[in-house]
Amino acid sequence: MKRIFLVEDDYEIAKNLTRLLGAEGFAVTHAGSQGEAEGLLERNRFDLALVDISLPDGNGYAVCTEIRQTQEIPVIFLTASGDEASVVTGLAMGADDYVTKPFRPRELVARIKAALRRQDRAPAVFETGGLSVDTGSGTVTKEGREVFLSALEYRLLLVFVGSPKSVITRDRLLGELWDAAGEYVNDNTLSVYIKRLREKIEDDPANPRIILTVRGMGYRLGNSGKD
């Protein structure tokens, strides 16, 4: 049974999340403050953390830093703000994903399961075609230079990194991605995000070598990927 560490100061939200995740087969340990979270991290091991950014005695960024220093697990931020700057700050500190409140239960569960799948499959540092993705620090570099991706572009890249030898269908991508506003990504906007990601990571976006199109099926990583 996967163990979820929930750091949330709203006890009504925490109670509902514990019930939801328990029904999905997860074991949930709850902390209501930064101090309580730090104490639990010293005594327990977890498989994934859900961390609220706003806490009464600090913030979720500090909790994320503590997690990164002690445990190699995915971190998903829970935030009441749709501010892209807050999201990017969290991802830059090593968070794997974020969910904006009020969130939809099915979306949250899907994000958790996707993060756990990536954790099981992906190495800490993935390299392909001169591109390096460090999932521990949340950084992406191309030929040694950092590549700055939006929150959704980074999440999209992680889907490919998590399945380096698989053809990934558009339906699967649509099932795992939501945009920064929390709305479902449709087929047209998915094409736009694929194009934007290629423009940032490919030597020649018109002739991609990292994210390849498999006609009639979807996409896959180029053969230079290592796992």
Count the beta strands: 14
Which strand order does the major sheet show?
Answer: 2-1-3-6-7
Secondary-structure content class: alpha/beta
Rg for CA atoms: 17 Å
Return the average pLDDT rounded to an integer. 85
Strand content bin: 15-25%
Distance between the termini: 26 Å
CATH-assigned homologous superfamily of the largest domain: Response regulator
Unreliable stretches covering 5 or more consecutive residues: none
Structure in words:
The protein is α/β, with parallel strands linked by helices. It folds into two domains: 3-121, Response regulator (Rossmann fold, 3-Layer(aba) Sandwich), CATH 3.40.50; 125-221, Winged helix-like DNA-binding domain superfamily/Winged helix DNA-binding domain (Arc Repressor Mutant, subunit A, Orthogonal Bundle), CATH 1.10.10.10. Helices cover 41% and strands 23% of the residues. It is built from eight helices and 14 strands. The chain has helices spanning 11-23, 34-43, 60-70, 84-92, 105-121, 151-162, 170-176, 187-201, and strands at 3-7, 27-31, 48-52, 54-55, 58-59, 75-79, 97-100, 125-128, 131-134, 139-142, 145-146, 168-169, 211-214, 218-221. It has a five-stranded parallel sheet, with helices on both faces. β9 and β10 form a beta hairpin. α2 (34-43) packs parallel to α3 (60-70), α5 (105-121) crosses α6 and α6 crosses α8 (187-201). The chain is globular, with a radius of gyration of 17 Å. It starts with a strand and ends in a 6-residue tail after the last strand.
